[in-house]
Specification:
The chain has about 150 residues and is of the alpha+beta class. It has two domains: about 80 residues, GMP Synthetase, Chain A, domain 3; about 60 residues, R3H-like domain (Ribosomal Protein S8, Chain: A, domain 1, 2-Layer Sandwich). It is built from five helices and six strands, in the order αββααβαβαββ. The strands form two sheets. A three-stranded mixed sheet has the order 1-2-3. It has a three-stranded antiparallel sheet with strand order 4-6-5. Helix 4 packs across helix 5. The radius of gyration is 19 Å and the shape is elongated. The protein starts with a helix and ends with a strand.
Length: about 150
């Protein structure tokens, strides 16, 4: 649990981090939920910070977590989102999961999705977990690991 003064210090550290990168950011929100710092930022240059398939965003998140842990001396997670990229990506992945499941349910043939990182596969598995007509499974090795959606046996 962070005190309001600690959240203010975290905000200052994050602002200084991006200032040193010479990238202007605006805080949309900074909150805490179940030991996770939720940081939502806006910027005029999102592509630079998000990178290919969100990889740069994940790396910045990792750097901020390491920097903040040294300063705060607490165990916590950080969820960094820039210009609602993760929110939009999550909505897209849930729709992809539903669409693939519907297709598999109708055709009774398995569908193999494109390779994706673990956190994206997790979103799809969670979205399909409640379905009775299909099952999902991750196959392959990183970075080519992908999901197969199959009809329920």
């Amino acid at each position: 649990m962070f005190l309001p003064s600690e959240l203010n210090e975290i905000k200052n550290i994050i602002e200084e981090f991006f200032k040193k990168m010479t990238i202007e950011i605006d805080f949309e929100s900074l909150s805490e939920k179940e030991r996770t710092l939720i940081v939502q930022l806006k910027t005029e240059e999102p592509k630079i910070l998000i990178g290919d398939r969100g990889q740069t965003l994940l790396e910045i998140q990792h750097l901020l977590k390491a920097l903040l842990r040294r300063k705060m001396q607490q165990d916590f997670y950080i969820d960094l989102d820039i210009n609602d990229y993760k929110k939009k990506k999550t909505e897209y992945l849930k729709e992809l999961a539903r669409s693939a499941a519907d297709e598999v349910s109708l055709s009774k043939k398995e569908k193999i999705l494109s390779p994706m990182p673990a956190y994206e596969r997790r979103i799809i598995h969670l979205e399909l977990a409640g379905r009775q007509d299909v099952v999902s499974e991750s196959i392959g090795q990183e970075p080519e690991r992908r999901i197969v959606v199959r009809p329920y046996p």
